[in-house]
Amino acid sequence: MALPKLYMFDASPPSRSVLLTAKALGITLDLIRLNLTKADHLTPEYLKMNPQHTVPTLDDNGIIIWDSHAINIYLVTKYGKDSFLYPEDPYKRAVINQRLHFDSGILFPAVLKVIMLFVRGQANSVPAEKAAEIQEAYEFLEKFLEDRQWMACDNVTLADFSLISSVTTADVLVPVDQSRFSKLNTWIKRAEGLPYYEANKHGLNIFRKRIEGLFSS
Ligand SMILES: N[C@@H](CCC(=O)N[C@@H](CS)C(=O)NCC(=O)O)C(=O)O
Hints:
The structure is a single chain. With 217 residues, the protein is α+β, with helices and mostly antiparallel strands. It has 2 domains: 5-79, Glutaredoxin (3-Layer(aba) Sandwich); 90-216, Glutathione S-transferase Yfyf (Class Pi), Chain A, domain 2. It is built from 8 helices and 4 strands, in the order βαβαββαααααα. A 4-stranded mixed β-sheet has the order 2-1-3-4, covered by helices on one side. Helix 1 (13-25) packs parallel to helix 3, helix 1 runs antiparallel to helix 8 and helix 6 (158-173) runs parallel beside helix 8. The termini are far apart. The model has no long low-confidence stretch (mean pLDDT 97). Glutathione (GSH) is lined by residues 12-14, 36, 41, 53-56, 67-69, 104.
């Protein structure tokens, strides 16, 4: 069996969440880096695999899955059975799923809208209404952390991997205010202490440099 292939882009938060999951599970992935600015994700071959042309996409020996949240659940259920990252307990799993949907439906889209404005040259600072959307997401996240150290359970789970990659990206655009969001800040520091956190840090630094480059040009 060949290593599972991951088509990805370092700066992309969803790609980084899959890297975190793979590292946490000890899975080696064959990373195929796409250059989105060169439209590597719009080739006929890629579109055949993933008509939504998003990264990341997983090819596990012919099993094709896209959407980072779906990929992460697949990796844990296939390679990390009974892992605390996605426990079988129905309630715990439901809370994790809710957080994953929050990332997918609320937080990441709010971040992506700002990134697209910058990439398309339609803005050179974060418009107030877009910043407000991200701040509102931070408010929800602060509440998720009301009585726990991690986003969904008492231990780190897949919810944290998706949310940390999005939040740290959002923080580059709309800094997480320490005085308003103290629990969120503490959670970020906690996640930065994970032994495999480098899987997010590397691409996050690339993202930060790109954004700084856009502003300075
Ligand atoms: N919900 C998706 C979002 C993926 C996504 O939008 N990725 C962006 C890069 S961060 C992308 O592929 N953009 C290129 C495109 O949509 O054509 C996931 O979690 O995988």
